[in-house]
Design goal:
This protein is of the alpha/beta class and 189 residues long. It has one domain (2-188). It contains six helices and seven strands. The chain has helices spanning 2-12, 34-39, 77-89, 105-108, 118-129, 165-168, and strands at 16-28, 46-58, 61-72, 93-100, 139-146, 151-158, 187-188. The chain has a seven-stranded mixed sheet with strand order 1-2-3-4-5-6-7, sandwiched between helices. Helix 3 packs across helix 5. The protein is globular, with a radius of gyration of 16 Å. It starts with a helix and ends with a strand.
Length: 189
Amino acid sequence: MRLLFVEEFKKDNPKYSYSIETPTKEKYRFGETYEEIIQNIDIHKTSASLDMCVFKRNSNKYERVQNIEFKHKNTSIKNIGKDVLKLLREEQNGAFILLLNNTNSGTLCNKNTNRMGIFNKFYKSFTDFKANWNNVDKSIQLLILSLKEEVLIHRKINKTDLNNLQEIFFINNGCENITEIKENGWNIA
């Protein structure tokens, strides 16, 4: 998916440059588990990598304007959490692009306390790390694609949205299939 995204990006954005696996400006220490990410939140040890960064040329230098993370399948809370933390802590706008094979209520928002859907993982990550939001003017775009349903949903998260995370991620009400997500600021394409 990342290679296809880069090819489309190059065609549609000739005035911008990009880099892959770019070191973060901020320093991190993630550990082996999600709990270790939380425990190490204030330990800034080394740069991490961002899947893709977009640059705009200003005079004779390139300015980073967008950080992008890619994931696939119903990945672990640790993988979602570390990427959400990077997008929050880095100064630039961010995008989190997630590719799913298919979706149902268990994949997106699971009411079962033993399993977590994608929205549950986003909710927990944004809630646990929201104090690390860097730059009040930036936003983070969330994009979720389902191959089977051939649907993309997207939503922009701003700093003010951090007070409304339960509603954004359907924590109290639950949700169904991706094709039915048309509220709480989510758009379907």
